[in-house]
Input
Amino acid sequence: MKKLILFLGVAAAVLAPSAQAAWFGSPGSALSYNRSSIQATYDTGSRSIEPKDGGTSFDMDTDRFYVQYGRGFGGGLDLFGRLMPQTGDASFENRGYNPSIWGLVGGLHWAPPQSGRVRWGGQVSLDWDQGKDQGTTLKVLETVLAGGASYRPHKNVDVYGGVSFMKSDVTFKNGSNTSKFELSDNFGLFAGVGVNPAPALTLAFELHVINETVFGFNAAYRFGGEASPQHTRTSRHHRRDKK
Output
C-alpha cells in the first residue's frame, strides 16, 4: 500500500500541472465584435501539490505546448477554447510515469471599454484533463479566476500583472484504490510583457509565482472583424488596423 501511495503521488506531481490555465495574457486587452485570435504558447516551470487528506507535498517540473482560439463578442467580452495535447515525464526515487494527456479548456475574458494607458480586466476558465498509463487513470478538473491591470508605456508595448486563484481536483484511480490531490497554494501572482511587431501580431512572455512557478512564451495573431481599440491600443496616438 505504501508503494502504491508513493507511486500515485509521483503521478500526481507529473500530471496536475497539465490542467492549469497556464496563460493569462494582458487583462486589459479585448477582441472586438467578430474578431478572432489564434495563439500558440510554450511554458515551463513547477508547482506543488499535496494529498487532500493530508500528507507530504510534491514538487514537479513540466514543459507544455498548447494552442488557443478566441472570439470577440463585443462589449469587451471574449470566449476562448484551448487544446493541450501533452506527454508528461518524471522520475522520483527510481519510479517513472509517462502518460499521454489530452486537455481541454474553456473560458471567458472581460475587459470593459476603457480609455487611457491603464486598463483592467479579468477571466474565468474551466480546465479538464484525462489520461492513463501503467493501469492508473487520471482525471483533473481545475477552475481558475484571474484579474489585473495593463499599462501601455509605448504604442507597441504592454506591461501587465495581476492575481490568480486556482482550485484543482486531481483524482487517480488504480484498480480499487483512489487518490486525490490539490494545490499546496491556491493564490498566486502573474506578470508579463507583450510587444506588437505588427498590428495584428503580439509576442509576449509571462511569469507566474506562488501557486506555481512558470515562465511562458506566447504568439497571438488576430484576424477578421475590425481591430479593437482596446486590443491594438488605438487612441488619438495610434491608428486602427483592419483585417
Notes: The radius of gyration is 19 Å. Confidence is low (pLDDT under 50) at residues 1-21, 88-94, 232-243.
